[in-house]
Design a protein that fits this description.
single chain; alpha+beta; 9-stranded mixed sheet; two-stranded antiparallel ribbon; 10 helices; 23% strand; globular; binds oxa(dethia)-CoA
């Protein structure tokens, strides 16, 4: 049995945060941000717009595109590191909005690798014959946990959501192979230290700004390149393909993406980028880019798309999709 992505969708909030806006918030310049990251703008959710709202919008559009009715959804998977609540899950909030009363619903957390981990979970359920129609949603309101006094992280992140319908029937992109990895030894190099049970919210955690993203950028960069390259290599080997037609990577830094493209000999015109418009939207980033690729370019039958990702945990992974 094959697991196929039969539709994709994304949702980006309207408000734009430009490099010029960031110059007013922290000690940085448009020139530094552009040359070091490739980012120009990112989107910010409205005050009354949350991860579940953005995820619902993307999911509804993906269902419409797939012609999937609410009653036929078997499972709702949500990848996010910015859930509306610690509990209940954002997946349950989205299930309510979708009126998908026959669906099971759960969140899972693999940070920026969330979309790839989600493809693997969905592929496993479908190939085991347990479910027919799964909606994978990756949604983030990162602006709620970004420290707009820290120039090392505030320039990087944006909000947004992506979704796809993964089914055993219909046609689209077959999920050929997925490889995943993790290294918890490096958990602290990209972390939000407070708000969980180890450091519950207190006056001190708020004063220390511990409810915001903390990152050792240079260390993360180094591991990102190494791990995404290895995961991609393994994925290509498992799938047995001899050519990669499109690279749709996690949009964390243009320099990381350029290294990957070079290593796999993929010309930059075959690398799909949204980083200049949306920055790093964590779990959503690969899904948003995949959706825009499918809307803007014609993918021919038999063409392969490689999706590598990397994030906090550390986690990483790669997926190889083939157009049917
Ligand atoms: O999505 C999860 C995975 N995340 C990633 O993959 C992110 C990986 N890391 C990165 O993309 C990069 O490390 C950053 C973009 C975060 C930083 O770029 P970098 O080239 O690694 O810079 P750096 O941290 O080594 O800092 C170089 C210099 C420092 O100044 P000194 O010590 O050389 O005087 C920083 O203080 O740049 C300074 N700097 C800035 N200057 C202007 C750091 N941030 C800024 C800034 N504007 N926003």
């Amino acid at each position: 049995m094959k697991a196929k992505i039969v539709s994709t969708a994304s949702y980006l909030p309207e408000k734009v945060l430009s490099n010029a806006d960031l110059e007013k918030l922290v000690d940085t310049t448009d020139e530094w941000i552009t040359s070091r990251t490739g980012m120009k703008e990112r989107r910010l959710a409205a005050d009354d717009e949350f991860t579940s709202n953005m995820g619902t919008k993307a999911a509804k559009l993906a269902m419409e595109r797939a012609g999937l009715e609410s009653k036929d959804v078997d499972l709702i998977l949500v990848a996010t590191l910015t859930p509306d609540y610690m509990f209940p899950s954002t997946a349950c909030l989205i299930q309510r909005e979708l009126k998908a009363e026959n669906a099971a619903a759960m969140d899972f957390q693999a940070a920026c690798s969330g979309y790839i981990y989600g493809l693997s979970i969905a592929k496993g359920y479908i190939q085991a014959g347990m479910y027919k129609n799964i909606i994978l949603i990756a949604a983030e309101k990162l602006s709620a946990i970004v420290d707009y006094e820290d120039r090392g992280t505030s320039i990087l992140f944006g909000d947004g959501a992506s979704a796809c319908v993964i089914s055993s029937e219909g046609s689209g992109l077959e999920i050929d192979a997925v490889t995943l990895g993790a290294d918890g030894n490096l958990a602290e190099i990209l972390i939000m230290p407070a708000g969980g049970v180890r450091n519950p919210a207190s006056k001190e955690t708020v004063e220390n700004r511990d409810h915001y993203i903390k990152m050792e950028g240079r260390e993360v960069f180094k591991h990102a390149v190494r791990r995404m390259e290895a995961a991609s290599q393994k994925c290509v080997e498992i799938s047995g393909v001899d050519e990669i037609h499109w690279l749709v990577p996690h949009q964390a830094n243009i320099r990381i993406i350029e290294v990957l493209a070079k290593r796999f000999k993929i010309p930059m015109e075959k690398v799909f980028l949204t980083i200049h418009k949306y920055g790093n939207t964590s779990a959503s980033s690969v899904g948003i880019a995949l959706d825009e690729l499918l809307n803007e370019k014609k993918i021919e039958k038999g063409e392969n798309i490689l999706l590598p990702a990397f994030g906090a945990g550390l986690t990483w992974g790669a997926a190889l999709l083939t157009k049917e």
